[in-house]
Amino acid sequence: MWAQLLDALWALPLEKRIFAAVLLFSWTVYLWETFLAQRQRRVYRTTTHVPKELGQIMDSETFEKSRLYQLDKSTFSFWSGLYSEAEGTIILLFGGIPYLWNFSGVFCRRAGFGPEYEITQSLMFLFLATLFSALTGLPWSLYNTFVIEEKHGFNQQVLVTIYADYIAPLFDKFIPLPEGTLKEEIEVMAKNIDFPLTKVYVVEGSKRSSHSNAYFYGFFKNKRIVLFDTLLEDYSILNKDHQEETSIEPQNIGEGENPETKAKVRTKKQGCKNEEVLAVLGHELGHWKLGHTVKNIVISQMNSFLCFFLFAMLISRKELFAAFGFYDSQPTLIGLMIIFQFIFSPYNEVLSFCLTVLSRRFEFQADAFAKKLGKAKDLYSALIKLNKDNLGFPVSDWLFSMWHYSHPPLLERLQALQDSKQD
Ligand SMILES: [Zn+2]
Fold it and tell me: What keywords appear on the UniProt entry (predicted)?
């Protein structure tokens, strides 16, 4: 049956074959990702206990809450994904793109623009296409925000995340790390691995950001290390709050089932000890020493070059336009859309998978580098501390994780470090 189908496809004119291949590929990717999501859903359904590695940082109540949330979200994504795949297919099959293009043209002509103004028609097309996708997407995102996130009490997180990731950093204050043991130890480590360190900074008041902990920047022989004050136990502004909080603490004891552990968690300081800070830095500098930064730049440059080269070759091919219903005109905007969105999609899928695999490899290599510096134990405890507040659901199916996560989940990193702690 498959052989006959392929024969039948092969007998079609070239533009029909291109169209069929694009649709077929889109459904292949869709089915593959649905399969992965279904595997991940099984993990949500069956993993009902906190993994032992995370026992100290995640209680079973938080774990269960996050598990049920992910389960609902995953079911929702199944339906919204099916909808958008079906919508995309119907638009392609019924010639939605040329229809909207012609409609934009008619609209522009009525408004007094001649057919020579392709740019006006393109802008109109973009506007209408965006409007259409916003309108069809709106019910889904409303349902997501007001039903699912409301039910699980997660709905304010979007704003908080936007604030923490985009707005708060604008007001970050960089101050040089004061002289002291930490600074000396950082300098010694940098020297040992030939890292051309010129300055160490601390970002003050980075209370809100829980994403990044440390990074370096600068060219060639002039590199600076930046540490977020949330990383540093002796520095973290959170510990100042903490002193105020401890005074009201006795009132809270008694409500919880387990006042003793609650008190213990509360009195624990935020941030990492010096050895742990060094272990985190060991990981970051591992990225530098192993050439990860340079490799990433080279790859992305090569990719842009290749894309533009292919684009230049393909933009003049009339059969690509014909495949999507543009028989007698070849508008540039439509060409961009066809080539980057449809024709390149197999390439993009393969590339993004390779980059995901590579990025995960880099993370594990940087962890291994920190381990080679003798910091496996400190990195292990630092990772646990740093992920305490933004853990989400910590367990994932290996195949799902491999396809989607460019950064290995905490549990996989801990397991890798634990393996290396033993040897
Ligand atoms: Zn890293």
Answer: Endoplasmic reticulum, Hydrolase, Membrane, Metal-binding, Metalloprotease, Protease, Transmembrane, Transmembrane helix, Zinc
pLDDT in tens, 265-320: 333 456 788 899 999 999 999 999 999 989 999 999 999 999 999 999 999 999 99
Find residue 225's DSSP bridge partners: 200, 216
CB 416 within 8 A of CB 364: yes
Q: What is the pTM of this model?
A: 0.79
Under DSSP, is residue 198 helix (H, G, I), strand (E, B) or coil? Answer: strand
Q: Separation of 234 CA from ligand 1 center, angstroms? A: 23
Within 13 Å and on the Cβ side, how many CA atoms surround 236?
23
Instruction: Find the DSSP H helices in 171-248.
Output: 181-192, 238-247
pLDDT tens track for 229-239: 878 876 654 44
Asked whether residue 287 is marked as a ligand-binding residue, the answer is yes
Structural domains in the chain, CATH included, are: 12-151 (no CATH), 168-241 (3.30.2010.10), 292-422 (no CATH)
Catalytic annotation, residues: 284, 367
152 annotated ligand binder: no
Residues 6+ apart with CB under 8 A from 51: 394, 395, 411
What's the CA-to-centroid distance between 292 and ligand 1, angstroms? 10
- Residue 356 CA, ligand 1 centroid: distance in Å: 13
Element (H, E) at 202: strand 197-204
Q: How many residues does the chain have?
A: 423
pLDDT in tens, 69-114: 899 999 999 999 999 999 999 999 999 999 999 999 998 888 888 7
In the reported structure, the alpha carbon of residue 398 is separated from the centroid of ligand 1 by a whole-number distance in angstroms of 20
